[in-house]
From TrEMBL:
GO terms for cellular component: plasma membrane. PANTHER family: INTEGRAL MEMBRANE TRANSPORT PROTEIN (PTHR23517:SF3), RESISTANCE PROTEIN MDTM, PUTATIVE-RELATED-RELATED (PTHR23517). This is Major facilitator superfamily MFS_1. Residues 18-418 form the Major facilitator superfamily (MFS) profile domain. Keywords: Cell membrane, Membrane, Transmembrane, Transmembrane helix, Transport. The chain crosses the membrane at residues 61-82, 94-111, 117-138, 159-179, 185-203, 308-326, 332-352, 395-415. It is a multi-pass membrane protein. The lineage of its organism: Bacteria, Bacillati, Actinomycetota, Actinomycetes, Micrococcales. GO terms for molecular function: transmembrane transporter activity. InterPro entries: MFS, MFS_dom, MFS_trans_sf, MFS_Transporters, Sugar_transporter_CS.
Length: 429
């Protein structure tokens, strides 16, 4: 079309081969890139909640959690735009733009003279995470095709959250040894430089793989076909389609409780007398179990279906949060972190795969972006809700309230989501 900026459809001249084995080198490169994306986020998990109270003397939980609110809102918005922009301009330029947005973040965290700098840095970090993580998801879906979508999402999310876990543990050590600033954030700066370099020099465009899949893929039963506007995709993903909307609300609640864990758990543990090193171990255990277990749960959902993995995973998360609310020792909280990681691993890659199952390849990138908009709005909702309840009634009550919300979300998935949406993809010739 004259004047269009949409990437040309190369499928008309050559048909890319879909599949994990056929695209293994690029797939594993994208796994490594997403590990660096996760590490960029992990630089904050242990240190920032302590920085809020010790360096900036923020007493109210709602004030301390403003950085998560800022991060969640900006990341949610960029998730939406990542899908739309990657359809219009291609995947790689969006991935590069995400890394560029992260460049100032470590310096701002190191030099921040006031809490407003921290909040602004997290707006930029949210923009970066929305563009980079969403695009890495979309590119892996492009490469592998329909047969191994759960496995691909398991690898993607495992890499990202193992990156979060390893960095949370490392920054806890660095903060204990060298102080809260600057050492922990220098690690984040190294991740950003490496991720940008790999993306520019080695990552290849994958949009043509999506074109190839779209040319021979009907819509899954119960979903719509290829010719949808962005507004129609938003409505379908958010409300109208039973499976897509059930996944979107579950994603929101999942990250609501992750925002709680990120912002309030370190404060709860510090208030009980745990040292920075112990807090770092718990902060790392949750995403480490979450990350590693996704290598199993993503692939298992390819075989046994998405619905019951998601519903059961939300209930396991609810039980883990109840354990945190009732706990008072390092051992109890470490056990709860492990259970929370298992529950989240059951949900996280499976939700993404369920979106890919139902969404047609022609609008799948937009559906992924919209799902991730809702999911990462949970960070903001969790920071606001948990902070307000914690200010009024204390952190254990806030954790218990979020546990109840998480359990209700699992029941919604059990009632609303269709049970066989992964089957059409598995049955393709």
């Amino acid at each position: 079309m004259p004047g269009s900026t949409r990437p040309e459809n190369p499928a008309a001249t050559r048909r890319p081969v879909l599949g994990l084995r056929q695209n293994l080198a690029q797939f594993m490169l994208l796994v490594a890139v997403n590990a660096l994306v996760g590490g960029t986020l992990g630089q904050e998990r242990t240190v920032l909640p302590l920085l809020a109270t010790e360096a900036f003397h923020l007493d109210l939980y709602t004030g301390a959690l403003t950085y998560i609110l800022a991060f969640g809102l900006s990341k949610a918005a960029m998730n939406y735009f990542a899908g739309t922009l990657s359809d219009k301009y291609g995947r790689k330029p969006v991935l590069v733009a995400g890394w560029l947005a992260a460049l100032p973040v470590p310096a701002m965290l190191i030099l921040a003279p006031s809490w407003g700098w921290i909040v602004t840095a997290n707006v930029l970090l949210g923009i970066s995470q929305g563009l980079t993580w969403s695009t890495a998801v979309i590119m892996k879906m492009d490469l592998v095709g329909p047969r191994q979508r759960g496995l691909a999402m398991g690898f993607n999310e495992a890499a990202g959250y193992l990156g979060v876990a390893a960095t949370a543990l490392a920054t806890g050590y660095l903060a204990t040894t060298y102080g809260l600033r600057p050492a922990p954030f220098l690690l984040g700066a190294a991740y950003i430089a490496l991720g940008l370099g790999l993306t520019v020099l080695a990552v290849r465009e994958t949009h043509h793989h999506a074109f190839a899949e779209a040319s021979g893929t009907p819509a899954a039963p119960g979903a719509a076909g290829a010719g949808l506007s962005t507004g129609q995709v938003f409505t379908l993903t958010s409300f109208r389609d039973r499976s897509l909307s059930a996944a979107s609300q579950a994603g929101l609640v999942n990250n609501l409780n992750d925002g709680l864990a990120w912002g309030l758990f370190p404060v709860l543990f510090a208030g009980a007398g745990l040292g920075v090193g112990q807090i770092g171990i718990i902060a790392a255990a949750y995403p480490a179990v979450w990350g590693a277990a996704q290598l199993v749960t993503g692939a298992a959902s390819d075989r046994w279906g998405r619905k019951w993995f998601i519903a059961a995973g939300m209930l396991v998360q609810a039980a883990a949060l109840a354990m945190v609310a009732a706990g008072s020792t390092f051992e109890a909280w470490l056990g709860a972190a492990v259970v929370l990681g298992i529950g989240t691993a059951m949900v996280y890659p499976t939700l993404l795969a369920s979106i890919g199952d139902v969404a047609h390849p022609a609008w799948r990138a937009r559906a992924v972006g919209i799902y991730r908009l809702w999911r990462d709005a949970g960070f903001a909702a969790g920071a606001l809700l948990a902070g307000l309840i914690a200010d009024l009634y204390g952190i254990p009550v806030a954790v218990a309230a979020v546990a109840g919300i998480t359990a209700v979300s699992g029941i919604v998935v059990a009632v609303r989501m269709r049970g066989g949406d992964h089957r059409p993809a598995a049955a393709l010739p």
